[in-house]
Specification:
This protein is an alpha/beta fold and 133 residues long. The protein has a single domain, classed as Response regulator (Rossmann fold). The protein is 37% helix and 23% strand. It has five helices and six strands; from the N terminus they run βαβαβαβαβαβ. Strands 1, 2, 3, 4, 5 and 6 form a six-stranded mixed β-sheet that branches. α4 links the parallel β4 and β5. α2 runs parallel beside α3.
């Protein structure tokens, strides 16, 4: 069975593993990246249905990562995650959705599902049977 693949970008391994476990429990395949550089390598090698991007990770600028993703993959949905209640307009123009961490995961899963529904079906899927995420 095909499942949508989601790329999670965050510099904290424990957050990535928790997010991965949560999304996998909802039927998603999950790739993780601890930096913008790693995320771009994953995107070059793997088709994904959506990207979850931490706003303020150490060692990378979320705005630069979002800009690069939109340049290379303009139709790929980016969901920005942050604890901040307000975001600079310049980053909100680059992302498709903004979710406060206090609203996770109850708001996140429906947003990913909506993004996946509007994405082309040939992209962003993985084989669940025996596939490593």
């Amino acid at each position: 069975m095909d499942s949508p693949t989601v790329l999670c970008i965050d510099d904290r391994p424990q957050v990535l593993e928790l997010r991965k476990a949560t999304l996998e429990s909802h039927g998603y395949c999950v790739k993780i990246a601890s930096s913008g550089y790693t995320a771009m390598k994953v995107l070059e090698e793997t088709s994904v249905a959506a990207v979850l991007l931490e706003y303020k990770p150490e060692g990378m600028e979320a705005e630069a990562v979002a800009c690069h993703i939109k340049e290379q993959f303009p139709k790929l949905p980016i969901i920005l995650l942050s604890a901040y209640s307000e975001m600079p307009e310049r980053i909100l123009w680059l992302v498709d959705e903004y979710v406060m961490k206090s609203e996770l995961p109850q708001r996140l899963v429906p947003i990913i599902e909506r993004a996946y529904r509007f994405a082309p079906r040939s992209d962003g899927q993985c084989q669940r049977s025996g596939a490593a995420a």
